[in-house]
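Recall the central idea of this unit: under ordinary conditions, the amino acid sequence of a chain determines the structure it adopts. In this exercise we apply that idea directly, starting from the sequence alone.
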Amino acid sequence: MRPMTPTLLSAGIARDLLTLRQEFFDMPGLCLTAPQVVRLLDVPPEAADCMLTTLLQEGYLFRTTSGAYHRRYPARVES
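Accordingly, the structure predicted from this sequence is:
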């Protein structure tokens, strides 16, 4: 069995990725670990890892040293 990569998963996780992005958007301060994403979306761990990696690479999320994921907010612009 080949390991799952973002390319192999892309067709199957597009909806779940959108859902995950929306969860972080709708709930400011939401903090999730990879196992919590697995339970929340009922996806395999490889899919959760792929989605979280995608959101990290996009700069949408950041990961703490404890392994939790948080939404990254743009810097505040002072007027």
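The mean pLDDT is 85.
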